[in-house]
């Protein structure tokens, strides 16, 4: 027996009953790429085109010339730097020295109290302690002070010294109607009257050039000399102490 509640399957629609619906690309708004379009092929072709353009753009001669000049200049800097270091280590140049072996105080007096007149002579000694190095002194300037008051200043003409050479040169200082503070004049008179001693100091500034073959070096030297003198008219140097720094 066949049960009554089982229904027969519904017939499937025939192909003739199905509706064919076609959607055109214009209706969807989507444009189709061309038939021969391929994204990877397009990128590779662009790279090849760029490479071809770069191959045709050669480096300009002026760029090569500038690069060669920079290379030569760098080599020259390295060469001169090494040569300077070797010469400095081989020669070991020492700083020239400055000293005052003798001095004389010929005249000191006041004209109407605040104005000082004086005559002072220094015997300076410049020495080059190096054995193989020539030294040239330039821009030599010496100043004479009394209790931090500048009395007079002088310049010396440039000169050259051979290795192990010394040079003695007299430098004369004169002050005429130099205005000084009252306390400076009082101190000077007391020193002369009490102990017949006067304290001065000299400052020297020198530009030095050192010659080591083809290599030239330049630097400044600063000297300070403390001096103790007897009173005029036959004032002479009693004690001194000179320090030279670079």
From TrEMBL:
InterPro entries named among the record's database cross-references: NDR1-like (IPR044839)
Region of interest (Disordered), ranges: 1-37
Organism of derivation: Pisum sativum
Polar residues composition bias: residue spans: 18-30
Localization, UniProt: Membrane
Domain of life the protein comes from: Eukaryota
Keywords from the named record: Membrane, Transmembrane, Transmembrane helix
Entry's Gene Ontology BP terms: defense response to other organism
UniProt-recorded name of the protein: Late embryogenesis abundant protein LEA-2 subgroup domain-containing protein
Primary localization: membrane
Listed GO CC annotations: plasma membrane
Entry's transmembrane regions: 62-91
